[in-house]
Amino acid sequence: MSPSLTITDDGDRATVTIAGDVDAATCHRLRGHLHGLTETGVLFVLVDLTDVGDYNADLPQLLSRAQTRLRARGGLLATTGANSELDSNLWAAATLVEVFALYQRLFNRDKTAESVPA
Fold first, then answer.
1. What's the pLDDT at 102?
2. What is the H or E stretch that residue 43 is in?
3. Measured between alpha carbons, how far is residue 74 from residues 6, 8, 41, 70 in Å?
4. All domains of the chain, ordered by start, with CATH?
5. Contact indicator for 26, 55 with CB cutoff of 8 Å
C-alpha cells in the first residue's frame, strides 16, 4: 500500500496520521515534518499508526528521538493504533528515562483518579 502522511496542526498540538507501508523515504518525510512541528512551537504530538502496514526499521527510533526532543521542550509525543509488533519495537526503542516517565505518568494518573470524589 502506498504510504501517506496527514498532519493536523492546532497551535501547540498536532496529529500525524500515517497510512500504508512506511519505507525509508516515508521515514525521511516524517522526520522532516516532526522536526518542523517542534520548530514551530508544537509541544504535543499524537501519531496515529492504525493504518500502518509494513514499516522501515528506522520508524521506532525516529519516533523515540522525536519524543526526546519534545520532552526537552516540555512536550510529549504519544502513539495510538500500533499493531503488537510495532508497539513492542516502539518500547524497545524507548530509553530508560522514557520508560520511567511513562510509568510516572501512569502512576500519577491512577493516584489522581483515586483522589477524585465520587
1. 56
2. none
3. 24, 20, 11, 6
4. 4-93 (3.30.750.24)
5. no
